[in-house]
Amino acid sequence: MATSPPKSSARPEAVQGNPPAGAGTPLDFPLGDFVYAAAPEATDHVVIADRYDLFIGGRKTPPLSGRHLPTLNPATEEPLAEVADGGAADVDRAVQAALAAYPRWSRLPGSHRGRHLFRIARIVQERARELAVLETLNGGKPIRESRDFDVPTAAQHFFYHAGWADKLEFAFANGRGRSLGVVGAIIPWNFPLLMLAWKIAPALATGNTVVLKPAETTPLTALLFAEICSQAGLPDGVVNIVTGGPETGAALVRHPGLAKVAFTGSTAVGKEIQRTLAGSGKRLSLELGGKAAHVVFDDAPLDQAVEGVVNGIFFNQGHVCCAGSRLLLQESIAEPFLRRLKLRMSRLRLGDPLDKNTDIGAINSKPQLEKIRELVASGVAEGSHIYQPRCALPERGYWFPPTLFTGVAPAHRIAREEIFGPVLAVLTFRTAAEAVARANNTRYGLSAGVWTTKGSRILWMSERMRAGVVWANTYNQFDAASPFGGFAESGFGREGGIQGLREYLEFA
Q1: In the annotation, is 287 catalytic?
Q2: Are 332 and 196 within one domain?
Q3: Which of 3, 147, 182, 282 counts the most CB atoms within 10 A of its CB?
Q4: Do 335 and 353 belong to one domain?
């Protein structure tokens, strides 16, 4: 198993982020030096195999392609394991297994399906430490996020949908609905376990079977979930997991045996999937990118709002589709707010993701790090003002410091394109109407945040902001009973809640 990242060296942020000299301008207020004793999470309870095969028909199955890919620890760049690279023939075997399991599973009483989901949820809780450490090792996110958010929320989704499995006839006014068949689920690398739960839990509760394709860089928790399915006694073929790269996902999307494709990932890939499925009769739900606006009014509690903004953009290194990556400040409070925000950023701890003190972990992959660097460089080139706190970056691994841009124009790339990294673009506004216009000035429509003490203003803004989710005086709050999804180039369809159940049913 890979070791913790090496000790940091005090490289200036200008080397890592490629901004010009002087980007890390000292603040005009004193900063104390806080020393935290290392608090690494134990890893001796996690066993990572040297090589993983596919999970088809309830069994570990070597790939017909004969290929395996390395999966890395992004905090160290060291290999963790080799994982099967499934080809079209492997995808076909998985779909055939799911088709064979579907008649029996769909006819199973809802209460029986619910029992299986309850067992899965309990085992996820029992193996929570193992799942959290594996999620952090393979994905680079801080252990406290994996431990306190990813794993508990994944378990919550299985518990929630287990409760619905025998109550579907009461969920919808137009009848109980019928299951679709085999669902092809393709999930991203930023929340591997949680996205798995978002798709598998409602699919199974409504009587469908699943072929899951995890992201190429973060397959390990999905493969551990295969063990959990077996441990829970899930019938063979109900859940199948085929690992691999983009070609594996494309083969799954094209397979004629699927009744539905559920995809979470980039907007570009989502568009390609939609083109591929046009006219095929397959159902499709897409949860894609975002460029969320975080709006702070002059009556907002500033310190509380600063915490919300920090959580909105630096959670999971900004690897969040609904990240609040555009900060809209009312002009009268822009200066004091930015002073507080810069001070808070200077206190963020970047480093070993397995350390419980860490706030910002590793960027998931080298290509993603290069994309972040390129977009940050474009912000500097277009005339925005960059701030990065002095930050010691580890010598190995993929790292990027928390970054703030001021003087941003709506036309700048950093205000328009999804960076998917710890980079915040700041704009200002004078009136609520201008705030709405700037918030909606995007091709995305996934999420937004509003900070104000006026309830009427919250309702007024929420009605006018084109976003699937609008948080009020908070950010990044999720619940299995609440639907999540977007508009425009953020996709369509919902996950979670009764609305998410409907995505896996058809009605006469």
Answers
A1: yes
A2: no
A3: 182
A4: yes
